[in-house]
Amino acid sequence: MMAQVFAHGQLRLYLLSLLEGGPRHGYELITALQDRFGGTYRPSAGTIYPRLARLEEEGLVRRTEEGRKTTYALTDAGRAELAARSDDLAFLEEGIAETVRDRAEHLRADVRGSMSGLRADLAAAAQQARAAAVPRGPTPADEMRQAAHARRMEAEAMVQRFRDEVRADLRRADAAGQLSQLTVDTVRTVLDTALTAVRGTLR
Questions:
Q1: Would you say residue 184 lies in a domain?
Q2: In-domain check, residue 128
Q3: Which SS3 state, helix, strand or coil, does residue 165 take?
Q4: Is the pLDDT score of 121 beyond 80?
Q5: Are residues 34 and 99 in the same domain?
Q6: Who is most buried in 37, 93, 112, 121, counting CB within 10 A?
Q7: Per-residue pLDDT tens for 72-103?
Q8: How far apart, in whole angstroms, are the C-alpha atoms of residue 59 and residue 52?
Q9: Which SS3 state, helix, strand or coil, does residue 71 take?
Q10: Is the dihedral of CA 95, 98, 104, 110 positive or negative?
Q11: Domain total for the chain?
Q12: What is the domain extent for residue 46?
């Protein structure tokens, strides 16, 4: 479990210390806190602004409106508070450093865990890819499909040869002036008979 970021009253003191260098917007204070914690902690606006309002009520901070922006600055009372609590602030800085180290270690542990999981996923995916790439012999069903395909191709080739030969004979007869209507009718009858016989065989 990560160490607690601020104990009771510590965020109030640290906000005063951040304002010691000059006036700041609320967003700048949030960013400064995030930077101080190395990006491992970022307070929400709902955490910062109520505390700034309380500091203003106590007379330690002065709020100034600048158009649509609001800046906060230390008052003399705020500076006196900081001076009186310099030891508390030093202790707080040590605690923040420890918290940053603790949070960084947890983040590193999370990253290591994520990387381990990623490596396991990649290894499993690679294993599946290798298994899929291994050639396998044809199954009985594959062999039956291949044999049926070969027979169909053979039959289609025979039909194509028959068609080509009949067409060539018709063209020769036509060129010789021997393609009479009787010849055409005879060819039609023969072909119809052959078609009926083939269909009967295939059913």
A1: yes
A2: no
A3: helix
A4: no
A5: yes
A6: 37
A7: 999 999 999 999 998 999 888 888 888 778 77
A8: 11
A9: strand
A10: negative
A11: 2
A12: 10-109
